[in-house]
Specification:
Blueprint: H1 3-28, E1 36-39, E2 47-50, H2 53-68, H3 74-79, E3 82-83, H4 87-95
Helix pairs in contact: 1-2
Amino acid sequence: MNRKSFGATLALALIFALCSYVRAEDAAKTEQGELKMVACPPECGFSCTSRNENELVEALKAHAKAYHNMTLTDDQAKRMIKPVDTPAKAKDEKKG
């Protein structure tokens, strides 16, 4: 395996580990902020959710570098983050 492939594989493993950790941590927490997500187009399939924006930014930047050969700034990554529509949030919006 060449160095570039190894680096990309290692980055993917890190991204999946980070997203899994973030999801487990979020499940253990009570409501401490809005759940957010970042995702690539469906052709790529990458997505990550968290209540921590900084974790999403770092995961997205690592993914973009490893799989799309793109270097994103923190601001570019932050603009790609969207709130997650949860059933409770949708219910509250209908009441309002």
